[in-house]
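Many introductory courses stop at the sequence. We go one step further.
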Amino acid sequence: MLAAGPAELSASFLWPMVVSLSVTLLVCPAVRRAAILLALYDRPDGGLKPHQRPIPYLGGVAMYVGWIAALLTACFLGPGARAYVPYVAVGGSVLMLTGLIDDIKHLSPKFRLFIQALMAGVLMYGGIGRHTSRALLEPLAGVLPAAALSEPAVLAVSAGVCIFTLAGASNATNFIDGLDGLCGGILAIAMLGFAALSVLVNHNDPGHDPSGVIRLVVCGGIFGACLGFLFYNFNPASIFMGDSGSLLLGFNVAVLMLLLAEQPCHAGYATWRWLDCGLMVFAFPVLDTGVAITRRWLNRRPLFRGDRSHLYDQIRDRGLSVRQTVLVCYSIGVLFGLIALAVSQLPVLLFFGVLLGIPSLAGILCRRFGLLRVDDTAARSGH
């Protein structure tokens, strides 16, 4: 399937963005009223939830309506986009509903992982992520036996990659939903990075970009939904997205990562390059998750028990207001996005050098500024 032209790529981002932004802005007040009527609040506890008053949930539902409306615009953007839409819509809908149920009645992590694994299967059935393992296996073709590159082996490894990507992106997105406007703003910035990366993919090999349109539809839809939601969620927030929103956003990040990983290997740009650049665009949630888990592990705390060990918590603890903290985090997100775009064009050896250097530098800075210290907020708040 040949790639779309520049005009079609622009329309693939702009129209879904406008539709999603408009719908989310209109729907958010209605779902906020519904949350108040149903008494669905996120109540402060003086520890993990430091906001001063109960805030209604269901913002994720408004984002979902805007996102679905954006996906429908893909039906007018060519057969390539329409082929992917049903599977993306089903996966995102199921995860949004899972998050909504979790907001109302907490679900076990195992059950959430089970649902995420099922939705990874839906994506693979629809042709998204079915061959992602080639990004990992192709560089080892001269070392691995032929059986390791057979279709069953590729599908088996791809299934593991899809489940890991979907679960990882969903949890990382959920972890940064801790301050007014943080998650929505960081994901909006990431969508701009993914969109720019998609344009670069098309520019470097315009004849072989079968998923270019749907990638930009997803980017535009989520970007618009995040902007519309931020109108009500930026500090002081009048509504929270809840798990229904964070799981929906993480699902779409996973879709974009898997589509980038499946890019055909042409023009000297191996598939792992775009996968790694996509991971770098999403680096702030990944870094935050890594800091929280490493800190809990070093201090012998339960890995999945909440505390105020997140990167944004520790930035705020240094005397910044909520708005200042969020803006600092936005700046870090923009920086990672710009780095991803810059290094995508580097020669292989230099690319790998930067790719290895960034996590090492992040680790050094975390230790230098005491980001791995013990925190007992969870114990003090009774969680």
